[in-house]
Amino acid sequence: GFIIPIAPLVRTKVYLEFPLYEDLFSEGESVFWRIATKYKFFYLDSPLVVMRYHEKNMGKAIKKNMDIHLTCLDRLILSKHFPQNAFAAYQEYRFKIILGNVWHCFRTNFEIMWAKKLILTSIMSYPKSLLNLRSFVLIFYAAMPKKLIFYANKIIDLILRKKLFKPLEDYYN
Predict the structure, then answer these.
(1) Domains in the chain: how many in total?
(2) What is the pTM of this model?
(3) In this structure, is residue 143 part of a structural domain?
(4) Best CA proximity match to 111, nearest among 53, 60, 42, 55
(5) Is 4 within the bounds of a domain?
(6) For 5-22, b where at least 16 C-beta lie within 10 A, e where not — what string?
(7) What residues make up the domain containing 29?
(8) pLDDT truncated to tens, each residue of the chain (173 aa)?
(9) Distance between CA 46 and CA 48 in Å, rounded?
């Protein structure tokens, strides 16, 4: 099954075998992808850690986190341990990461122009994405003016009774 990569326990010798990318601000859980190309993880159905929510959580640095995530993913396929038959899964996963971030940006009125460019380049790099319903919705969003996106989100949030989630903007200033 899928392992939520929040707190995998890893032996020190394995961490030493897969050193973190020093040129990236935060590799995060991407290091576990690299480890998983060589070792198997065992799932333990017991909570080992508690995550804390706070306003300055770097998980809200949408653009920076996605860039780092994609860099790690692109480096992963260059690994000698990366399975050759997993390239299609890599392409689909990469697209889904971008799609999720574009969706998040459109729905939170954050970096709309960046998101518009991103959805178009993403679809061009993975044409199968046109079969995805969310892609069509995002293309519709991309065609809308920024002000209309803002009002559409307000209406959707009212209907769904959602509270506005703000990405970590001061990280970008």
Answers:
(1) 1
(2) 0.73
(3) yes
(4) 60
(5) no
(6) eeebeeeeeeeeebeebe
(7) 12-171
(8) 444 546 677 889 998 999 888 777 777 778 888 898 899 888 778 877 776 666 666 666 788 888 888 999 999 999 888 998 999 999 999 998 999 889 888 888 888 899 999 988 888 888 888 888 888 888 888 999 999 999 998 898 899 888 766 665 555 54
(9) 6
